[in-house]
Structure prediction request, 375 residues.
Amino acid sequence: MIEIKEMTSESGLRKFVEFPFKLLNNNPYWAPPIIREELETFDRKKNPVFSNADAHFFMAYRDGRPVGRIAAIINWLEVNEQNKPKIRFGWYDAIDDLEVTEALIAEVEKVGRQHGLKFMEGPVGFSNMDKAGMLVEGFEELNTMITWYSLPYYHQHFEELGFAAEKEWVEFKIKIPEEGPSEKVERFSNLILNRYDLQVIRFNNKHEILEHVDKIFELINQTYSGLSTYVPIGPEQIAYYKQKYFRYLHPDFINCVANSEGEIVAFAITMPSFTKALQRANGRLFPLGWLHLLWARFFHQRAAFYLIGIKPEYQNKGLTSIIFKEMNEMFNRRGIKEVETNPELEDNKAIQALWNSYENEQHKRRRTYRRDLTC
Prediction:
């Protein structure tokens, strides 16, 4: 018999967070999250997303042993302002037992019906800045710190339970030319800089980054507001994400382009790959986890492409050539030979076309699943 419990106490949420450490602990491709950061994500006093969202955290037990978990999430901005009667689900992990997944999904469905919602979709987080998508290809590829790892049977459970594929994301591995950016990229970059009177902004330290972070988030909202999946990021959430990700940022890995008035019109954020460091830390910053993460910031041969943003009026004008030239030169200086992209919607052909100038391989695919709520 399966028993479902809602985790509401601090100790209960810790059990929720620690469950995948038991399920995936021996998996060589999984990058464990930092437990403290996960707990802060679910803390209603610390995460400002709860001013516009509700969440319920469920765990499944069999014979007193934890066998699965799932979060049911309602983003009220999405429901009320974008008129999407959707309940989200995320942080799903379970043993290979369809009955367990079915019991967890039933709890999400119950919450959705209580609020008059019409369908469920996941796995997704609270907002676009959270992890999204269930891995359906690439199970033998290293996970990144900004994605969930999924065991091969996860998506099979959802398909057997009548869920339909909703959105598809793809990820690429890109080989960085050791000889530097091509002559074509270099020439085109200089042409665009001169044509639109642009300048490259380089950062020397984190304090300089902080001076521009709000503008970068503003540009994120402008860049992605046209996507049907995008929920705008408010000022309180911006402050929260600054604090959450600040320790991982390195000045060299943020590239910005400004116009003649000094206004940022394009940016790209990459990060050193923290996967191996997170595996060594195994969810804890202390006593030595922080040292592994610090080491990864400076000594690495792999990076993760996190986010790119371009002001709408500057899109399709070649500014990516400036960003790629800067990144290529920085990667060469640091000995980085390979970059992995963040998940991109499969139908976002404009982004995927950017990688055609490089040797690349699509090595992962993820998916969200949707099902209407039953009456």
Notes: The CA atoms of residues 143 and 151 lie 12 Å apart.
